[in-house]
Amino acid sequence: MALQEPESEQSNPQLSAAMRRTRTAILDAALAVLPVNPKASLSDIAEKADVGRSTLHRHFNDRTDLVRALALYVRDLSNVAIDRAEPEVGTPLAAIRRLVDGQFDLGPILVFLHEDPLVRTDPELHEQFGVGEDKLIMAITRAADPADPTPTAWRLRVFWELVRLGSDFTANGAARHEAIDAIMYTLTHGMAAGESR
Amino acid sequence: MALQEPESEQSNPQLSAAMRRTRTAILDAALAVLPVNPKASLSDIAEKADVGRSTLHRHFNDRTDLVRALALYVRDLSNVAIDRAEPEVGTPLAAIRRLVDGQFDLGPILVFLHEDPLVRTDPELHEQFGVGEDKLIMAITRAADPADPTPTAWRLRVFWELVRLGSDFTANGAARHEAIDAIMYTLTHGMAAGESR
DNA sequence: CCTTAATGGGACGGTTATGTCCTATTTTAA
DNA sequence: TTAAAATAGGACATAACCGTCCCATTAAGG
Lengths: 197, 197
Prior knowledge:
Chain A is mainly alpha-helical.
């Protein structure tokens, strides 16, 4: 998962370099394992991170601690990718495509987090998650057909689900660019010809 | 969940009326509980069904047994709803709308099943699940824009995800018809204005 | 009414994941 | 090189869930 590190993890003054590395390794392992197997044990995650289970417990008191940290970690990754996509530059569609491309790899883990009971219930966490979406909403609104009657929240969810669906499609053999093309086509045309066209 | 019972459950010659009732109650409980909490215990499901845990175990040997039966149960419910929608009648869009309406309540459980490791791995079950989708694929193909370059499998997945998203939206306060309207608009127009329009 | 079918509830052992603690070893940094 | 910081690994108690079995009670059907 070659993604830009968010600085909130890169420069954490609290932790030594070594501890930051293992902490990130654990978070990356959780990032990779949990979407595939949502009920993976902490042993599974520790093993994937090449780390002893006791070490994992030293960094994260319990499972909810880990999920909580993972949520913030992923949120940062997502926000960094949104910024790098420069959503306010160029044509709306080009911006959307860059956003899709940037969020593509995050699709599965974002869905896992969105469905996790902890993230769903914890109000603070849930709120914090929407923070970085402002620019995304801007871009979606900029690209929207003025005649579109659906609420912004709906279109936002559609965006995320299509991104995740695209990620999932590559797992079934499709190439990344094919998946992104399919996302873009569906985003711009839907999948059924309306009478008005 | 006021859905048409599939006859495969209604008239099972093997079971007495009483046992069929409790069996269906358990399946309905699982249908309601599992999408919300995918790792609900068998106790949770039995409790929701107003049934002792031992009774649940009498009907379904173990958890995989239950999920397996649930998959077939839901598949039947879905197929009944597809038939009732008469997907080959009328304009393509009207047919799609009827299909969406018929599958609306099944969205969450279908996603749960689609993601369940048992359903994913068991080849027989996985195959059986695609059986009833033929008419759905027909209707989607009938409604498709001839210029749409995306594969049918992709559009099928988009259909299911939008249905599930709509169900999810009602859980957040939206009215059912609003959700269906949003689904239909997105299915026919997407959510971003393309250059070609 | 009486027999049989079905259920409810509880007890039990086995398994798995969890969280805590301790110790020996390795790595890091001064 | 040496002291401190991290880690691996294992032991341990706890809790949850599962699958099985048994028995008393209730409901159903002849």
